[in-house]
Every structure is written in structure tokens, then in C-alpha cells.
Specification:
Layout lengths: L3 E11 L2 E12 L3 E5 L6 H9 L6 E6 L2 E2 L9 E4 L11 H8 L2 H10 L1 H6 L9 H14 L4 E5 L7 H12 L6 E5 L3 H7 L2 E6 L2 E5 L3 H5 L9
Parallel strand pairs: 3-8, 3-9, 6-7, 7-8
Antiparallel strand pairs: 1-2, 1-4, 4-5, 9-10
Helix pairs in contact: 5-6, 6-7
């Protein structure tokens, strides 16, 4: 089934500091949209607005042409924040059973060697890469048609960063995915569409060399 998420006319400010202004974005099932931007440009705020936990001065969030104030309440948008979301005392297999359908959990154990390895461990005992892989795995296998991943590559071992890239690519047939991360190489490789959040607005990037011209990366990077 093809779904469409539209973000339009978002305006977010704190006193005289305009964070987001008139952002527009369209995400379809199968899209992997990368959103780059310097610290403080509002990437996490944008995700929280889309998810529905941050209230801006103005926004229009539509899923399949219907307006929603808090899309997460209808299980339309899932969100993995930077700091993670699972309690450290819970085991991997228990969280899988709590959050995913039985058949999905069984397939996870049968088909994913990394999940098999972590099966009986508690979240608090996992390495940074193991934990992030597990979190991304759960998010991508939930029933939400759209998923927001905030810094899924940050602070983890390179092998897990590449594993997460592959995990994202393998799970786009039934979802639209938005990713934000400072590890821009991973974001560029995995994304089908790319944007730079700059001065409150989203600018479409068709060639990575535009990131040099816009001052996001040094000249000569690409």
C-alpha cells in the first residue's frame, strides 16, 4: 500500500529565535529521506513536530491527505530519538514481544543473526552499536507507515553503522523513512532524497557538491 506523509507550513520560534519557518516535505512509501544540518538548526525539533510531541506556532501534518495534530496517537509515525527509548533492565526478547507481532518476532529470531546473538541480553548490557541496531530494528518492524530516525549512526562502531545502513535499505518497501545525522556519509549513501535544513528552511540537494557551496562541508569533500 502506498502512503503519503506531508509536512507543510511549519513555523517554530522561541522568542525572537526562529527555528523552523515554512518547511515543506513530502515522503512516500519507499522513500528514504536524509535531512542534514548543523547543530542547532532544528533537525530534532522538526522530527518532534512531525511526530506530534512538540507544538509549534503553526503546522500542517497530513497522512494520506488527512490532517493530524499528533500522528503518533494513530500509530502513523514512529520516532527513534537520539538518546534511545528502551529501559535498560528489559531483555531484548521481551521488548521484541511487547512491541512487535508474534510472527515478526519469530522471523527476527530465525533470520537476523545479530538479533539471535542479543536475544537473552538486557538492554543495559549492550554495546552502543548493538543497542542502536536493536532500536532501529524494532522501529523498522513496527506497523507505523512512517519512521523518523534521529542520529542512528552517532557514536557507534563502523561495522554497526554499515549494518544499520543495510537494515534501513532492506525495510523500505512498506515504509517511508526520514533520517537525520551528522555522519553525512552514511545519510547520503542510504537516502533516496536529500535535504539540508538551513536558516529554518529545507533545501533540496540533488548533488552532494551543493553541500560544499552551502557551507555544510569543506570544499573538496566531494
Amino acid at each position: 500500500m502506498m502512503n503519503k506523509l506531508e509536512i507543510d507550513s511549519i513555523f517554530l520560534s522561541y522568542r525572537d529565535n526562529h527555528i523552523l519557518s515554512d518547511c515543506y516535505l513530502e515522503c512516500l512509501t519507499g522513500d528514504i529521506i536524509g535531512i542534514l544540518g548543523r547543530n542547532g538548526t532544528g533537525k530534532s525539533s522538526l522530527f518532534e513536530v512531525i511526530f506530534g510531541t512538540l507544538k509549534p506556532q503553526n503546522k500542517f501534518i497530513r497522512v494520506d491527505d488527512k490532517l493530524y495534530k499528533k500522528p503518533f496517537l494513530k500509530q502513523l509515525v514512529g520516532y527513534l530519538p537520539q538518546k534511545g527509548m528502551f529501559p535498560e533492565h528489559q531483555s531484548v526478547n521481551r521488548l521484541l514481544r511487547l512491541m512487535l507481532k508474534k510472527q515478526t518476532v519469530e522471523l527476527a529470531f530465525l533470520n537476523d543473526q545479530r538479533i539471535q546473538k542479543l536475544w537473552n541480553q538486557n538492554i543495559g548490557t549492550l554495546s552502543g552499536g548493538e543497542r542502536k541496531y536493536f532500536e532501529v530494528y524494532i522501529m523498522l518492524h513496527m506497523e507505523h507507515p512512517f519512521i523518523l530516525l534521529d542520529e542512528p549512526f552517532a557514536g557507534i562502531e563502523p561495522i554497526y553503522a554499515y549494518e544499520i545502513e543495510n537494515l534501513i535499505k532492506l525495510n523500505t518497501k512498506s515504509k517511508g523513512i526520514l533520517i537525520s545525522d551528522h555522519y553525512y556519509q552514511h545519510v547520503i549513501r542510504v537516502s533516496s532524497k536529500l535535504f539540508l535544513l538551513r536558516e529554518g528552511a529545507l533545501k533540496a540537494i540533488s548533488d552532494p557538491r551543493q553541500l560544499e557551496a552551502l557551507g555544510y562541508v569543506p570544499y573538496g569533500t566531494f
